[in-house]
Amino acid sequence: MAKIIAKVNDYEYIVKMSRDEINKLTGSYLSGYDSYKVETTINISKTFDYLAGIVANQEKITTHARNLRSMADMIESMPKPIEEPKEN
Q1: 14, 17, 49, 87: which has the highest count of C-beta atoms within 10 A?
Q2: Host domain of residue 71
Q3: What pLDDT, in 10s, does the model give residues 54-81?
């Protein structure tokens, strides 16, 4: 759980977070990032905007995924134009 430990001004705070919380918040848990240096900059807005874009376009993404699956099925079911002879 993140904890606000100080207020810098009306728009900025100092937040205490665990490594796992940072990784989950930034999506870094997928890459197994395990260490952050003091004064490392983490652009949470970019990650949030990226994920919000996915959610906002979920219907389009689902439609595209369905189309790609259909195309893959069609490609896999195409007959081979040349059949090699079977070895006896």
Answers
A1: 17
A2: 43-77
A3: 999 999 999 999 999 999 999 999 888 8
Tell me the two tokens of residue 79. 């007959």
Q: CB count, 10 Å around CB of 34?
A: 10
Tell me how far apart the alpha carbons of residues 40 and 36 are, in angstroms, rounded to a whole number. Answer: 7
Q: Is residue 27 in some structural domain?
A: yes
Whether the full predicted model's pTM is greater than 0.85, yes or no, is: no
- For the chain, what is the domain count? 2
Cβ neighbours for 38, distance < 8 A, ≥ 6 positions apart: none
Alpha helix positions (H), 1-88: 19-26, 44-56, 58-77
Q: Determine contact, residues 20/32, Cβ cutoff 8 Å.
A: no
